[in-house]
């Protein structure tokens, strides 16, 4: 599988340098499937690695007291195989900000080749009420810093 060429319905993916936030993940042999490439379910784990580095950075965690981030939507477009052994680089950027949610775009790259792109809608949930709550000003500022 080499990935589909760009078309009006499927534009070319952004390059790695279009993503201001980066994370790395090491491929494990256990990530592979019967076809010998990394299993599609592992791509969601790569997205999680990229999100976690941003949302839960020990230096500047975004989640407020009494709040939790929950995923409302995750869409992954598979573009090429990823093969073991090796590493992947996950690029993340903010592409949308709402009242209580925001959208991240991510790219998963192996050897500078984009193997997948993803979009994730994340909602700030109040842990007591289990309902969405507005994003505080400090989170909005942090999100704007990484918006492209």
Separation, N- and C-terminal Cα atoms: 30 Å
- Can you summarize the main beta sheet? 5 strands, antiparallel
> What is the general shape?
globular
The strands making up the biggest β-sheet line up spatially as 1-3-4-5-2
Level-1 CATH class name = Alpha Beta
Task: Specify the number of helices.
Answer: 2
The average pLDDT score comes to 93
SS class: alpha+beta
Report helical residue fraction: 10-25%
- What is the count of distinct domains? 1
| CATH-level-2 architecture | Roll
Strand content: 35-45%
Helix and strand succession? EHEEEEH
Report the CATH topology name. Answer: Thiol Ester Dehydrase, Chain A
Which residues sit in consecutive blocks of at least 5 with pLDDT less than 50? none
Radius of gyration: 16 Å
- Compute the number of strand runs: 5
Determine the CATH superfamily: Hotdog Thioesterase
Quick tags:
alpha+beta; single chain; 148 residues; Thiol Ester Dehydrase, Chain A; five-stranded antiparallel beta sheet
Structural topology:
Blueprint: E1 21-26, H1 40-55, E2 67-78, E3 87-97, E4 101-110, E5 113-126, H2 137-145
Antiparallel strand pairs: 1-3, 2-5, 3-4, 4-5
């Amino acid at each position: 599988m080499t990935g589909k060429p760009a078309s009006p319905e499927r534009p070319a993916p952004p390059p790695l340098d279009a993503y201001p936030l980066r994370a790395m993940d090491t491929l494990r042999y256990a990530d592979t499937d019967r076809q010998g490439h990394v299993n599609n379910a592992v791509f969601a784990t790569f997205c999680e690695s990229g999100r976690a580095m941003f949302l839960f950075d020990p230096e500047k965690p975004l989640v407020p007291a009494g709040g939790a981030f929950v995923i409302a939507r995750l869409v992954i477009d598979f573009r090429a195989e990823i093969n073991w052994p090796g590493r992947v680089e996950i690029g993340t950027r903010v592409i949308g900000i709402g009242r209580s949610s925001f959208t991240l775009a991510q790219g998963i790259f192996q050897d500078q080749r984009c193997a997948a792109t993803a979009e994730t809608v994340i909602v700030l949930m109040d842990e007591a009420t289990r309902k969405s709550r507005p994003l505080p000003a400090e989170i909005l500022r942090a999100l704007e810093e990484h918006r492209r």
